[in-house]
Amino acid sequence: MLSEYINTKKFIHLPKLKEDQVEQITENGKRVYVCPGGKFPSVTTVVGWEKNEFFKKWRRDNPKESQRVCQRGTNLHKLIETYLLNEQIEKNSLMPDQYELFRQVQEKIDAIDNVHALEYPLWGSKIGLAGRVDCVAEYKGVKSIIDFKGSTNRKREEDIENYKLQATAYALLWQERFEEKIESIVILITCEDGSVQEFIDKPINYVGKLFDVIQKYKEKFNESK
Questions:
Q1: 8 Å CB contact between 134 and 147
Q2: Domains in the chain: how many in total?
Q3: 176 lies in which domain range?
Q4: Is residue 110 part of a domain?
Q5: What is the CATH number of the domain that holds 168?
Q6: Residue 159 and residue 166: Cα distance in Å, rounded?
C-alpha cells in the first residue's frame, strides 16, 4: 500500500532566533521557568489560575476525559508544528480523530507565512512571566501571536478571554525581548463538532485586564513583585 501524505504548503521561515536557555520546573504545584533574568511563573499558570481552580475538580471527577482532552491538545499541537516546519506527514500515521481536527483547520493554518518562531521560549521582567509561545508569524499578512486549540464544542467569545490574555502576555514578552510590537493576536480553534473558529483581536485591548489578573494572582498567592 502506497503511503499517502497530507498536501503541504511551503511555509517561509525567517532566520532562526537565538533562544534563551530556560528550564521548566514545578514549585508548590505551579509551573515556573528558570530564565537568565530570574525565575518567573508561567503565562498559563498566572492567566488561567481562576479557571484552573474550577478545572481541578472537573479533572478529579472526569479523569478519563481529562486525559483524553489533554492528549488531544498535545497531539494537535505537535501535528500543526510538524506541518508548519514543512515536514511530510503520512496520513496513515495519524488517528482518524487527530487527522479530522487538523483537516478542518488546515485552510486557516495555510493563511500563516513568514514564520518567526515556533514553540519559542519567552520571558520578561516587566510583566514577570515566562512561557513558550505557539507561533509568531504573519497571519493574513499581519505579524501575530497565533495560538492553536482543540475543543469538544464551539466556544463563545466570553469563553476564550483567558486565551486572549495569554496571547497578549506573549505579545508583551516578545516586545520586551525584541523591541518589536505585535499588532494582532489570533486564536484558531478546531472542534470535535465539526466547526472551526477564528478569533482575531489586538493585544492592546487586553493589556489592562492582563495586569489586573497578574495583580490578583500575586495577592492570592502572596507573591512579591
A1: yes
A2: 1
A3: 23-220
A4: yes
A5: 3.90.320
A6: 13
